[in-house]
Write a structure and sequence with these properties.
Layout (H helix, E strand, L loop, with lengths): L13 H8 L4 H16 L3 H19 L4 H16 L3 H19 L4 H16 L3 H19 L4 H16 L3 H19 L4 H16 L3 H19 L4 H16 L3 H19 L4 H16 L3 H19 L4 H16 L3 H18 L5 H16 L3 H19 L4 H16 L3 H18 L5 H14 L6
Helix pairs in contact: 1-2, 2-3, 3-4, 4-5, 5-6, 6-7, 6-8, 7-8, 8-9, 9-10, 10-11, 11-12, 12-13, 12-14, 13-14, 14-15, 15-16, 16-17, 16-18, 17-18, 18-19, 19-20, 20-21, 20-22, 21-22
Length: 465
Amino acid sequence: MPQQNQPAAPEPSIDDLAREYGPDHPRVIAARLDEADDIGEAGDPARAAALYEELIADCTRIGGPDHQVTLVARNDHANWVGKSGDGPRAAALFAALATDMARVYGPEDPNTLAVRAGAGGWHLQAGQTRQAAQVYGELVPVLVRVFGDDDPQVLDARSALAAALRDQDRLAEAIDVYEQLLPAQLRVLGADSPLLMAARETYAAVLGRLGRADAALQVYQGLAADESRLRGPREPETMTVRHELAYWQLRTGHLDEATAGFTAVADDREQVLGAGHPDTLTSLEWLGQAYALADRAAETAAVYERVVAARTRADGPDNPETLRCRSVLAVWRLLAGAAEQGLDELERLIADDERVFGPDDPQTLRDRYNHAYQLGYHGAELRAKELFWALIADQSRLFGATDPATLLSRHEYARLVGALGDRGQAIGLMESVLADKEQALGPDDESTAATRSQLETLRAGEPQG
């Protein structure tokens, strides 16, 4: 009869191996190393780190501190310490190990260099960007000398160095590193590599932060085309890049292109992610800002109607963001000529603000300011003056008479007093506001200049507007 397959014999336990070979035998040490790694990979990195501490002590006793197994155990121990949540300690352990590795194997040995990179990596993950930048800044030239510009280790180290510099706001230095990294990634990884795409996106963002808006726009234009070709225009990451492209079109004054871009990406995000998704709402609000910059009040109001409806469905009518967007919508309805609708909305909004936030909340006070201001410009000067009087009392109580928000209200109150016919009182009030603004904000502040101009108009006896 044919033989039946016999079940494989179980692997001997660590205790079995220790009894057979002795606790210091290499097979026992190897089994303990495997056990620690298995425990860490199963979700308990802290326990793995503790087991490695015991192993390091035993390996040092058996083979000495410079034995290869001891050094490997120290490397793995540092990684498990980092994975257990103590990145700074992991970085310190790697730095100490790198010193010993350089002494044993030499400073340019590949293993020594990998350990130095480990120290930089854990500094970066722990948010210690200054230390990470120092480690990688010293490491990259050595890696280039040993391996060449196009080695994967060089690419990884340059990418990490750029990230560390970026996170420290050392943006010009980060740009220099990206401009070395990107051509090498293109040569090694190819034009369609996800790593290259991610690096190009970060490079564009850093260009923007550095104030190089035209350069950022150019990178985003190419990246949006490539992402759309590779992933499709409606893939979430592609839509993020398309949104950024529209943003930089807006920042560089290309209003028509920005409006078209935000419209398209908002519609696509609504289709793919849903009307209430934060990314959809972000694109919609930027579309509103693009229309606002183009003085297209009706379109701005229409966009914010969509935003308010979506936020109300997704977050509820009392969500702070819903209430904020209702405030914006009300103002743009007024600017679009729907005065009665806008004023009614502001009045309802103030009641909701007081119920949700309380009467002294900054959002409530801002909406009270907007309501009074818009009443004054829509023919209800007396009512606006009364509302500003009450608002100034509350702002002065909460923030002081010379707080910037209080000063804005005092300016408007003085202007309304003049508009209602009491030019002498208005001049006195406006002089007081001007003196306080010069003291609190400075004589050259834009708000101070506006009050100075209004005071000159009052003194000249010109009609108030």
